[in-house]
Structures are given as structure tokens and as C-alpha cells.
Automatic annotation (TrEMBL):
<protein>
    <submittedName>
        <fullName>Thioesterase family protein</fullName>
        <ecNumber>3.1.2.-</ecNumber>
    </submittedName>
</protein>
<dbReference type="Pfam" id="PF13279">
    <property type="entry name" value="4HBT_2"/>
</dbReference>
<keyword id="KW-0378">Hydrolase</keyword>
<dbReference type="GO" id="GO:0016787">
    <property type="term" value="F:hydrolase activity"/>
</dbReference>
<dbReference type="InterPro" id="IPR029069">
    <property type="entry name" value="HotDog_dom_sf"/>
</dbReference>
<dbReference type="InterPro" id="IPR050563">
    <property type="entry name" value="4-hydroxybenzoyl-CoA_TE"/>
</dbReference>
Length: 141
């Protein structure tokens, strides 16, 4: 399948005193996009467990251009990378009129009742593998 694309509405309250969307709010907008993939889309495909426990272990974000409220929405393209037994990375590219940021989150499935990380189930791995970016084969010449 490749990239999953989510459209996230910007709110007036996302702006800061400088007239652009605050850096911390940008991370929240990425979170909303990620929830659309991991919870809403997963549920549409019959996968309910991801909404019961998934935590961010690391977030890295690079800002490329100011995100202005006038854009009204943010398009977030996400793909899965480094799918392991108990973690995976989501890569993000967020666009308004242009690419405004790229980011990654290290995600860890979490057992809320036990209070500890858990392994991905086979169904979760299958769902996530559908969103892996296609790897290009190195050219041999």
C-alpha cells in the first residue's frame, strides 16, 4: 500500500504569538494523523487491539517552513519503517502549501494492565507491513 495519508484540520488555537502554528501543536497534529492510522484505519480493517495500548518512545521532528493557520489543514503522509517484534517507526511528511516538517516516532505496543511493553501481534504486524514504504533495490551496474 505504501503511504497512509491523513488530513488534519488546523484550529485557531494552534497559532502562537508569531502568527504560525506553534511547534508543540505541530506534534499534536501529527499525533492526530497517527491516531487516524493506528486506531481508525486499523479498526476499519478489523484490528481493535492497537487502540488498547500504543506509546511513543521517541519523537524527532525537523521543521522546514512555518505552518500558517490560513492553510486550514495539514496533509500528513505516513509510512512504517523498522518493523520489529516490539516496536516500529512511523515516518511523517506534513504538507500545507509546501512540506512544513518531517518527523519520526518510535512506537511501542504497550500492555496497560501489566504496565509494560508487549510484542506486536501477528495481525498488527500484517496491518503495519501494509504501510511500509517500498524499498528500492540498489542498482547493479
Amino acid at each position: 500500500m505504501g503511504a497512509y495519508v491523513a488530513e488534519v484540520a488546523l484550529r485557531w488555537s494552534d497559532m502562537d504569538a508569531f502568527g504560525h502554528v506553534n511547534h508543540a501543536r505541530t506534534i499534536t497534529l501529527l499525533e492526530e494523523a497517527r491516531a487516524d492510522l493506528l486506531f481508525t484505519e486499523a479498526e476499519k480493517q478489523g484490528l481493535l487491539g492497537m487502540a488498547e495500548g500504543m506509546v511513543v518512545a521517541r519523537v524527532v521532528i525537523d521543521y522546514h517552513a512555518p505552518l500558517m493557520y490560513a492553510a486550514k489543514s495539514l496533509q500528513v503522509r505516513m509510512s512504517v519503517r523498522e518493523l520489529k517484534a516490539a516496536s516500529f517507526i512511523i515516518d511523517y511528511t506534513a504538507f500545507a502549501r509546501e512540506a512544513v516538517c518531517t518527523a519520526e516516532t518510535l512506537m511501542v505496543p504497550y500492555d496497560l494492565r501489566a504496565g509494560r511493553p508487549r510484542r506486536l501481534t501477528a495481525d498488527e504486524r500484517e496491518f503495519l507491513s501494509g504501510w511500509q514504504a517500498e524499498q528500492l533495490e540498489p542498482s547493479r551496474g
